[in-house]
Design goal:
Arc Repressor Mutant, subunit A; 15 strands
């Protein structure tokens, strides 16, 4: 029997068997937004599908191709176009001739990278086939079903593997951290709706874009929803009778926050306030932005 590994990420460039159909290689891009690095998943054996080839890191791509020597990469699937997930796609396609399936290209025009390059979008991503909710990519011994999960990114997809009752959840649901939602590409309202959709599904394990698996996913998703609802209540409470700004709210909510993570916290509060404004629970003078002063509606 193959010894399946359900906890260790493995060293960058190491191919680890997770289940009868799933293997994983972690890219060497560890950081505050990527944890131990982006998880690249290989589905099947002999003729395989790769999910999220990862960032444009030559050593990661070389390790992936080397580990799969003698096997055929037929399909490449992408969950979303952040630069830690999709840039290696075009290089892998050029090396193997595989077809690219997945999310639509990023269509935004503004620059919202701030200091966090990992959540900037890959503008060179070019899929051969764009997948929509419920569409299936069929291989010899398995199938992958598209599940639309916008929120972390507007073009975010997850993929169900019915043969193992598993879901590749990308950055929508991760065990090591809550997902960052950055407007205008991310949207808190869509993110919450996507979480609610997952509660209706029956997968027994999630394989996320960063970190280890989620083994009781519905309970975990319920906890994520409760966490976000508690956070929005805290934000509304910080507005007070005269309103407040995003930096002031962050300082109160996260008193011991490091400077490295402060931009992510400000963006998360902004995403909540944008959603609260759309729902008529908060208001500001003009369109929501990072620099507005917000009040209770």
């Amino acid at each position: 029997m193959i010894p399946f590994d359900f906890s260790s990420s493995g060293a960058p460039g190491e191919l680890i068997r997770l289940s009868p159909l799933v293997r994983r290689m972690v890219a060497g891009n560890a950081g505050p937004m990527t944890f131990t690095g982006t998880c690249t998943y290989i589905i099947g054996s002999g003729e395989v599908t790769v999910i999220d080839p990862g960032p444009n890191r030559p050593e990661h791509i070389a390790a992936l191709l080397g580990a799969l020597g003698g096997e055929t990469i037929k399909n490449i699937l992408v969950t979303h176009t952040h630069k830690d997930h999709s840039p290696a796609t075009k290089i892998l396609k050029a090396a193997t001739g595989a077809k690219i399936f997945g999310c639509p290209p990023y269509e935004g025009t503004g620059s919202w990278q701030f200091s966090m390059g990992d959540v900037a979008n890959d503008r060179e991503y070019a899929p051969d086939i764009i997948l929509r909710d419920g569409e299936t990519v069929i291989s010899k011994h398995f199938s992958l079903v598209c599940v639309e999960t916008p929120g972390h990114a507007r073009n975010h997809l997850a993929y169900a593997l019915p043969e193992e009752n598993a879901l590749f959840s990308g950055d929508h649901v991760m065990a090591w951290s809550t997902s960052i939602v950055v407007p205008p590409d991310g949207a808190m309202g869509a993110y919450m709706s996507s979480l609610l959709r997952l509660l209706e599904r029956k997968e027994e394990i999630y394989w996320p874009g960063h970190g280890g698996p989620i083994r009781q996913p519905r309970a975990f998703v319920r906890a994520l929803i409760a966490h976000r609802r508690a956070r929005e209540k805290s934000i509304l409470a910080k507005l007070g009778p005269s309103g407040s700004t995003i930096p002031a709210i962050v300082e109160q909510l996260y008193p011991d926050l490091s400077e490295e993570l402060a931009p992510a916290a400000r963006l998360t509060v902004y995403a909540h306030l944008e959603d609260l404004t759309e729902r008529g629970l908060a208001q500001c003078d003009g369109a929501p932005s990072l620099s507005r002063r917000y009040e209770r509606a």
